[in-house]
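Question thread 4412

I'm putting together a teaching handout and wanted feedback from people who do this every day. The idea is simple: show students a protein as raw sequence, then show them the structure tokens that encode its fold, then repeat with a second protein so they can compare. Below is the first pair exactly as I plan to print it.
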Amino acid sequence: MNRSLWSLALLALLSACSEKPQTAATTTSDRAPYMGTGKAYVEAGWKQGDKASWESHLKARSQYGQNDYTRIN
């Protein structure tokens, strides 16, 4: 009984040694936002990788779509 308990404890301790390292995987989040995701469904008039177009679309969206002062009539 005592020997099997020690064997179980040793097995539990050694099982932690086989854990894989947890490192961050490289994803597309390391790229600049204006580079896009490679998907075909994007805003009309914007080309993936065009920084000036990205900035103008962001400016228009923040100015007219998210500005409460422009929505009040």
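The second pair follows. I'd like the answer to focus on this one:
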Amino acid sequence: MKIAVGLSGGVDSAVAAYLLKQAGHDIVGMFMQNWHDTTGTLHGNCSWEDDLDIAKMVARKLDIPFEFVDLSEDYSKRVVDYMFAEYEKGRTPNPDVLCNREIKFDVFIKKANGLGADMVATGHYCRIASFESGGRKTFRLLAGKDPNKDQSYFLCQLSQEQLSKAIFPVGHLLKPDVRRIAAEQNLPNADRKDSQGICFVGKVDLPVFLQQKLAARKGDTVEIMPAFYEKYGEAVSGDNYKNLSAPFKYSPNDGKKIGVHDGAHFFTTGQRRGINIGGHVEPLFVIGSDIETNTLYVGEGRSHPGLFRKALFINPAEIHWIRKDLALSEGESVDYEVRIRYRQPLQKAKLAMQPEGLYIIFDKLQRGITPGQFAAWYFDGELIGSGVINA
């Protein structure tokens, strides 16, 4: 079988290529360039040029063909433009999830097919299984064996068709095992640090990056005191899904102006850095914003009640089922485990499908439920579906 391996310059994809070649497959290494602009990039981290050089070295070491593909136009239109649009609305997107859905397992697969490849492999820490029923094969996306590196969350928007063409060779390994294999094979990136930051862009100063298209605007920073939430006692109890999932509503009169900021759209719920206001015993955290009035709302301390909510809501158009055979019908509910961000431990919750959309009601209050991020739900280590948090 001919398999295109997405060589990123990192150790995980390098070992993935090695394992597939050892298994006797016809391998071609492919490197994706997806971003050119360095505006807002924090230099000193791995640039794409460094990644490219190391990917070439890996290909030479493994004696496999190497291809370079420039997907920057698609990445700009399908990932970066989406990022800017979401931030402009006051939502916080996850570009890594979008990059996997729109680029790595869409545009990249088509490029690989053009080179005669049947499948695409990456260094993601997750696994694929399948079963047949009624003559139809269904693919299952499973968490990686390494609980500290499981990356299934980043693939939560993949479709059955995309999974049918994907291979994850390191998903059954622990990270130390991957490092060991790389060292044993003298791969040039055996000790290279894992990449961080936005997919294919790297670590960025987010406000500087966003100011490419979103102008800075001075606005008021208003502190909300814990006593404000006493009136929400009834709203966060019982079985009224709409009330449970509704974000707290603030107005400038509900608190005290304590400073100014450069644009509410540059901040996200739960954020600590960048508020730059002193005079408090504990750090300030973002608890909300109003894009129309350009007002930023903050609260003091990690346990501030404005950081915690019981439930969230997902619009029908933004619900995605990897396992379509398990999709909920209106009026149905089911208990799953859910995470609302990468690396968050799975949380017990009930999913309830209502006429207006999907509600997720957690057993315990959740910190930092953020509109624009993805909620992903699991059962017994399998990722069943996901959706964009609306509220």
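Top answer:
Good format. For the second protein you could add a caption like this: The longest strand covers residues 357-367. The mean pLDDT is 92.
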